[in-house]
Structures are given as structure tokens and as C-alpha cells.
Specification:
six-stranded mixed sheet; alpha/beta; 272 residues
Length: 272
């Protein structure tokens, strides 16, 4: 379980622990910094498929980076599997796998196979186990048999798939994916979504961070919507979908159209 209590993150001032990854829409405060996450409390049970949604600058990326210590809160605390993150960063980063928005931030090797193997190697897995995990993770992103491909020769979408495979290969208790589908073609998207569904069903928490719910809303158990660093929505997917367009979040049009059999039509699109 991931448990965040009273988490506040600031950036743009000396000594601030926050991150500017969410852009510049968060609120300023009396300290001269920018509040990216403002007194957020959130629990993610094991096996939950959670969407953290919000517009650029809403605080969603900063929030999830506190889950494994990439961002240290200025106030509040985050615990993972019962241990405060800052008390044991190694344990937190082993338990919480992270896929960044830009795969260049996490690709570390020259070839696909070596990159996906990096995490299991650092976990001390045997050679046979590493080979199994690499093959399994590449199959999950529709890149079977491409272990010897050079990272430098891959497209942006292929690099995104390698980054996702690298996180899957560590077999974390909790998997965070920040805008994971941006560069994926349809077959790769379907393959990744299928694996995320399987992971959640097997007890892995899946946290998808996005401003566009069209791919993932049908998989979610719960949706948390952020605005100006605060939780504005925390509800089941269908109920949350009614409010999210007001937060500049895109939801599948059909969800709004089907809210109730007798609801009046409100338009043909749910785009903000």
C-alpha cells in the first residue's frame, strides 16, 4: 500500500523539495515559492488501478514522484508498504516502479535487452531470472525478440515501450506510469493495457498519470483529479468523469453520453 498524508511540495525557492515537472500553473505562497502539491492525503491499496488526472501544472507528476523519493515533500510524509519513504529509499524504489513522461530520462544502456535487464540485475536476480523477465517484459510491450536492437536507432514510441518494459521487468509492488501512451501505436497500446490489467488483477497497484483518460478509464477502480495541487475529485470512474472535463481532462465521450438513460444531451464531445 502507498499512503500519502498531508503532502505539500514547493519549488522555485532555495531549499524547496518539490519539482517543476508539472509546469507553472500551481499557486505561489508567502515564501516566494510555488506550491506544486498542497496538503494532499491519498491511500493506494494493493492491486488498485488508480488514475491520477489533471491538466499540465496540476501537481500530478510531483505527487507521484514522492512515492519513491524522487521528490521529497516539504511537509507531510509518504509510506510504502508500511515504511516511510525517506527512511529507506532503496526499499521504496524497489517497491515502486516508475515510467517517466520522457523515456530519455530512464534509458541507461545501448541495447534494448541490456536496458530492460538493468533493473533485475540491480535487484540481484539470477541470469536465468533476468532472461525470463526481459523476455516477458518485452512481450508485454509488443517488442518480442528485439533484445539486440540499439536504443539509438529506435523511434520515440519504441523508446517509450522499452522504458515501460524496464519498469515491468523489476516486478514492483506498485507501478507508476506518467503519460505512458503518448507515443504508442495501437497494437503496442493494446498490449500494454492488457498487461496493466493483468498486473492489477494479480495484486500490483497501477497508478496511471494522465490528462487523457480515453485509454485507461475502463480499467480504473478509482480516479483522483488534481487542480492547483489539491485533490478536486476522488471517486469511481463514471462518477469522476462528470467532473473531470472541468479540470481540463479529456474523458471518453461515450461515458458522458451514457451517464443515465434519461439525461439530456450535453454535446458531442467531452474534450475540454
Amino acid at each position: 500500500m502507498i499512503d500519502a498524508t498531508g503532502v505539500t511540495c514547493r519549488y522555485g525557492r532555495t531549499g524547496g523539495g518539490g519539482s517543476d515537472a508539472d509546469g507553472g500553473d500551481a499557486d505561489t505562497n508567502g515564501d516566494g515559492g510555488v506550491v506544486a502539491v498542497d496538503d494532499v492525503s491519498l491511500t493506494v491499496p494493493d492491486g488498485e488501478f488508480l488514475i491520477v488526472a489533471g491538466a499540465n501544472g496540476s501537481g500530478k507528476t510531483t505527487l507521484v514522484r514522492t512515492f519513491n523519493g524522487l521528490v521529497e515533500p516539504d511537509a507531510g510524509a509518504v509510506s510504502v508498504n508500511g515504511t516511510v519513504v525517506n527512511d529507506d529509499l532503496v526499499a521504496a524504489r524497489s517497491a515502486v516502479g516508475m515510467v517517466f513522461q520522457d523515456p530519455r530520462d530512464q534509458l541507461v544502456a545501448a541495447t534494448v535487452g541490456a536496458d530492460v535487464a538493468f533493473g533485475p540485475e540491480n535487484l540481484g536476480c539470477s541470469h536465468a531470472e533476468i532472461d525470463r523477465r526481459v523476455a516477458d517484459a518485452l512481450a508485454a510491450v509488443n517488442m518480442d525478440g528485439r533484445e539486440d536492437d540499439r536504443i539509438a536507432g529506435l523511434s520515440g514510441g519504441e523508446r517509450e515501450r522499452v522504458a515501460i518494459a524496464g519498469a515491468i521487468a523489476t516486478e514492483p509492488d506498485h507501478l507508476v506510469l506518467d503519460e505512458p501512451f503518448t507515443g504508442l501505436d495501437e497494437p503496442a497500446r493494446r498490449s500494454v493495457l492488457d498487461r496493466l490489467r493483468e498486473l492489477s488483477a494479480a495484486g500490483t497497484s497501477v497508478i496511471a498519470v494522465t490528462h487523457d483518460l480515453r485509454d485507461v478509464l475502463g480499467l480504473a477502480d478509482r480516479v483522483v483529479g488534481l487542480s492547483a495541487g489539491r485533490i478536486a475529485v476522488d471517486d469511481a470512474p463514471r462518477a469522476a468523469a462528470e467532473t473531470l472535463p472541468g479540470l481540463d481532462v479529456r474523458v471518453p465521450t461515450g461515458v458522458l453520453d451514457d451517464r443515465s438513460a434519461d439525461a439530456p444531451a450535453t454535446g458531442d464531445t467531452a474534450d475540454p
